[in-house]
Amino acid sequence: MKKLTSIIALAISMGATDTISAQTPQKGRQQNPFTLVYEGAITKNEKGKVNIHPVKYKLNGIDIAANVYTPANYDASKKYPAVAVAHPNGGIKEQTAGLYAQRLAEAGYISIAADAAYQGASGGEPRHTDKPANRIEDIHGMADFITQYAGVDANRLGVLGICGGGGYTLKAVQSDKRFKAVATLSMFNSGEVRRNGFQNSQLSTIQERLKQASDSRQQEAIGGKMIYAGVASITDEEIAKTKTDLYREGFEYYYRSHAHPNSTFLYTMSSLLDLMTWDAATNMDLINQPLLMIAGSKADTKYMTDEAFQKATNAKNKELFLIDGATHIQTYWKPEYVSKAVNKLLEFYKANL
After folding, report:
1. How large is the average pLDDT for residues 149-177?
2. DSSP H stretches of helix in 42-121
């Protein structure tokens, strides 16, 4: 029980997990040639159907690995609207970001899901660096690449940020007006949670954790061992005893049902120096694009969407859309909730792109 308590405390205060357990089933990944782990994933490219195109491009000297999805009967000589999809914290392009990108392509959009720099299949050292500036730059970088992709109408570019990717998306679009329509799904304010703890549960340890991050930075500076924040591989029993929906269902999603070796949930402890002084919900008045924020009605993370939404005072046609009965993680994969989110996204992008 003591081990479980320490695992959950660290997860709540820092919002990270560790390497994939040996118990994790990998059947879906092994069967899919693109290592996609979501239901209904593309298994092969066929003429006349939605296709997937693994690509790589440079962003500030770093190799970024991404998947571009093209609509059925894609014709490079025509012009299509496009959507960039930013993945959750610890997530990668083969999980829920890929699912939503594929569903958007099925509706006629060229879409891109890219692994964040320093994470997944993208380059960058040290591995698992997780700094807001990098994640925001990743979103700018997706715009750089996809607006030059054959067939993309650069004037009809939208963005979808999921979980932590949603928080970084809110910040990216404050300045990047190439994005003409902005949507988030189950938005997670990484800075607020790293600083205050999940649901403000770690307010009393902020200075202690800042000191820990500072010490880690110093250890790196003198060439010492890299220290990572995270949770060790977790047992089924420990998952079952986790009280918060976000972390219990998150452990199940990332360690079991949708596991992928590139999705490790590690991040450098020194990243907290940047994360804990950052907040996704600042300067929300700079967003003047149409804004759609989607959250599950039962999500224990909904308070973050609520906080950011009310601050978006200059957003055009802003809307908060709740998926009745859904928790945070269920919006990643559960068919009925994914369909509701996708239908709303399509209505939104059709009206604004």
Report:
1. 98
2. 96-106
Is the pLDDT at 232 greater than 70, yes or no? no
Buried b (16+ CB within 10 A) or exposed e, 155-172: ebbbbbbbbbbbbbbbbb
- Tally of structural domains, the chain: 1
Q: What is the pLDDT at residue 281?
A: 97
In a domain, 238, yes or no: no
Identify the CATH number of the domain in which residue 307 sits: 3.40.50.1820
Q: What is the pTM of this model?
A: 0.92
Residue 303: both structure tokens together = 């308070």
CA distance 223 to 328: 39
Residue-wise pLDDT tens digits, 6-41: 333 344 333 333 333 333 334 555 689 999 999 999
Take residue 2 and report the two structure tokens written for it: 């003591």
Range 173-200 average pLDDT: 97
In a domain, 191, yes or no: yes
In-domain check, residue 291: yes
Q: CA 305 to CA 319: how far, in whole Å? A: 11
Q: Has residue 64 been placed in a domain? A: yes
Ordered alpha helix ranges (H), the chain:
2-14, 27-31, 96-106, 132-146, 164-175, 190-196, 206-221, 236-241, 245-252, 272-275, 302-311, 330-333, 335-352
Residue type, 168: Y
- Closest alpha carbon to 288 in 175, 188, 189: 175
